[in-house]
Amino acid sequence: MKIIFFGTHTLATAILHALMQEPALKICAVVTQPDKPAGRGYKAESPLIKRFAENAGLQVLQYKKLNDDAVATLRAYDADVFIVAQYGILIPETILSIPGHGTLNVHPSLLPNYRGASPIQSAILAGDTKTGVTIMLLDKEMDHGSVLSQEECTIDKSDTAVTLEAKLGRLGAILLIATLPRFVHGEITPREQDHTEATVCKKIKRDDGRIDWTQSAEHIYRMWRAYLPWPGIFTMWNGKRLKLMRCVILESRLVGTIGSRRDAIARPGASLQHDSKFGTPFLTPDKNLAISCGAGAIIVERLQLEGKKELDADAFLRGSATFVGAKLG
């Protein structure tokens, strides 16, 4: 079976790798987004899947726009089916309809829940305890097509977007490989989604990671889990962006299990007890750095101040004597 694969990120790369191990499947080409500037130097960076595919000897196609030239190129491969996962661009009907068996999508949610660009992050932010993968037929609307198969996946309390994406990538690959031959041989009847139950998640922006300290510690911890590694979560201190690189909920752990003593670190006169003001750093009785929230508090284990390197909380406090008792925003 000849396949053209559309994808860009980590989950897509995991699924492509799994398809390549199947003797009955041939990957004719991989379509991905163009290289984009990244990092401080804004140098062009290739998508993860491009680097993987080229290392594997696969042909890679990159389009800024899926125009008539793209249609002609893709049609020439005479593929049996197109597979899409985390491509990130809406594909027009002129391309979806090219292969004889249509275009299948691997979507990391239990559709019709979380249609859109951020289903993994949205499930974590909502506090869901389960999510899953849907194999579906693509149509002209976003994540709207009929369902071929679905499989659930548990969201652990410690799961981040990184770990959950890895889980769903493995699950999606297994489900796709099981579904694809059954669908092609007419053994699966596509099931229309219940569109009245559909929920849509937005594209994540950098400023979505800004912390509102009136929110609960539980909510802020979910933000940290959902926005790892990008955009991360941050607050403002002395006019600079301060990223919280690793944190946990104060109430969810045994006091004294991390960090060293900080008796000499807090500035003179700073309270070592919980300050009721939202967004106020304080030291717990066992001298761990914490920040008060609308309900509860979080312990911060690693931080990075704008323009500086990432530090553990001990090292950060040694160089920031006025931090405890300050007001963050």
From TrEMBL:
GO terms for cellular component: cytosol. Keywords: Protein biosynthesis, Transferase. This is Methionyl-tRNA formyltransferase. CDD domains: FMT_core_Met-tRNA-FMT_N, Met_tRNA_FMT_C. Belongs to the Fmt family. Residues 203-320 form the Formyl transferase C-terminal domain. (6S)-5,6,7,8-tetrahydrofolate binds at residues 109-112. It catalyses: L-methionyl-tRNA(fMet) + (6R)-10-formyltetrahydrofolate = N-formyl-L-methionyl-tRNA(fMet) + (6S)-5,6,7,8-tetrahydrofolate + H(+). The lineage of its organism: Bacteria, Candidatus Uhriibacteriota. Gene3D superfamilies: Formyl transferase, C-terminal domain, Formyl transferase, N-terminal domain. GO terms for molecular function: methionyl-tRNA formyltransferase activity. The keyword Protein biosynthesis applies. HAMAP family: Formyl_trans (MF_00182). Attaches a formyl group to the free amino group of methionyl-tRNA(fMet). The formyl group appears to play a dual role in the initiator identity of N-formylmethionyl-tRNA by promoting its recognition by IF2 and preventing the misappropriation of this tRNA by the elongation apparatus. It holds the Pfam family Formyl_trans_N. The keyword Cell cycle does not apply. Its EC number is 2.1.2.9.
